[in-house]
Amino acid sequence: MTDTNDTTAVDSFPTSPRVSARLDDNDLPWPLRPWIMAAICAVAGLSFHLLIDHHYEDALSHWRSAMATAVAVAAVVFVLGVELRRWQWALGFALIWGAILGLIAWQTAAYNIQGNPVEWPFWSGMLAVLVATPLFQTRRDVAPDWRFWKLWWMPYERLHSHAWTDAVIGAASLAFVGITFLLTVLIGQMFKLIGINLIFDLLNDEWFGWLLAGAAFGGAVGLLRERDKLVSTLQRLVMIVLAVLAPVLAVALVLFLLSLAGTGLQKLWDSGFSTAALMMAAAAFAVLLANAVIGNGSDDRATNPMLRWAAPVLAVAVLPLAGIAYYSMHLRVIQYGWTPERIWGVIAAIIALSYGLSGLWAVVKGRRDFDDLLRPLQQKLAIGLALLALFLALPILDFGAISTRDQLARLKSGATPVEKFDWAALAYDFGPSGRAALKELERSPNRARADAAKSALAAKNRWDLMGPEGPKLLKPIAERLRIVPAGRTLPAAALDRISKTYMCSGAKACVAVWLDDKRIGVMGQNEPGDSLNFDFVTLNDAGEWVQGDRAKPTVARKPDVDLSKAHIEVEALQQRRILVDGAPETSTFE
Predict the structure, then answer these.
(1) Phi and psi dihedrals of 490, rounded to 5?
(2) What are the helix (H) ranges across 6-147?
(3) By three-state DSSP, how is residue 213 classified?
(4) For residue 531, how far is the Cα from the chain centroid?
(5) What is the mean pLDDT of residues 156-179?
(6) Where is average pLDDT lowest: 201-205, 498-502, 571-575?
(7) pTM
(8) Domain residue limits, the chain
(9) Angle at CA of residue 574, ends 568 and 577, nearest 5°
(10) N or C, which terminus of the chain has less Cβ within 10 Å?
């Protein structure tokens, strides 16, 4: 359905000196586009590296996470969606989404103490921008002026084409990045054979890798955009290949759902796999393949009878798959309570149910011509999905606070015993509300809860609290660490480094053996009877305590040695090794 006031936006362009390779005649050739896009993405890649470059042991600053996200998102969105026609719109759209995703990354990184911005809100924001980009491109093409917010009045054929074209160009450009790196490695090795190590050395520098990846991606997008008639052919080929798979999935889903009628759902819960995730993945593939069959419009849909019958079957099958996923999440919540992941899972299941209901209604109402009814419904669902994903990504609803209240209620009621309670989630996944709850539980008169909360707050990372048999509550490092010889005081920096090593971070028993002023042997044991983990913690030349032994100094050799006359003798060296209960635990060392 299109607005009668909307007309195709045509800007005045000078006459092209060559025939356009563009699908839309309004988009005339832009010869410099690949070079401009490559330069933009190269600068963005280098900027991204400079923003995320930090010592791996230290958390990345929140503002740097936000800026890096904003740069990456704005650059990718701009190069994918820009045209000479109304390029200012594309620039504004890209900058707005870069700022939005940057703020989301900032808030997400500050939410939990790990400082990781790539959490569920971030992925929700990414989904929003991925869905919004083809909507923007379509509205930019047909809007008569800058008032382009009438999103539901757009030609579905153009919207569907933009969505598939963006996906094909994005995937092909990523593949081109991989090929570019392989070619660069080959060239670097060729020159290395003749003693020129410049390219090989550049590849070992992270900044060059990001710059090369950005330039390759931007250049590939620019080249493909300038030949989108060719891309359209590739897109149609992809859709044909996917459409061929539609009957296979349709038959499989029918047999699967009929089998469930006989076996029941219990076998799904007993399988050990995430039933909800599997069902939603199957539903997503069903939607994808159904759209490959029905195409951009009535003239584009498949004519093969087998494909025509597979499409409505897939559209209807989405509803029972989504229903099973929702019921699976419902049971999970009843058994174990709410967590942010389960809240996101329920929301995803509800979205799948919406698509399933739309598909069922379209098939019942339209029969063989169901796709004519399904297309406008999917367009409205896409708009709603983008808005919902953006809303959920913003710090409006605190899923951590909701989960904290529910999990604390289960703990206090006895539904979840202390030894089975997920203390790591409360400390690291539920945000400020979870940490505040731990501090309150630390003062609990219930000794077991107080000790567990104290251990959770003292843990250096979430893995210190997790074991193969469930939550593992460790005492503070000062109570677990034994220093040899007794009475020796370790430097604070060395103690901090030891507490973060794999030998001690998750170990119930840990020993630090003082060897000299620059080297400490560290042993840890996760459980009594387990094998011991051993490594050195040493003071490097920069004055930092790091894991691993110091590099052995190179032996100074006398120049002009005449081996035929040199004096040869054997020197006895004294070496040391660490013994545990009289048995050697390490090899000899100086």
Answers:
(1) -90, 145
(2) 33-52, 62-81, 87-111, 120-142
(3) helix
(4) 34
(5) 90
(6) 571-575
(7) 0.77
(8) 33-226, 231-393, 399-471, 478-552+564-584
(9) 135
(10) N
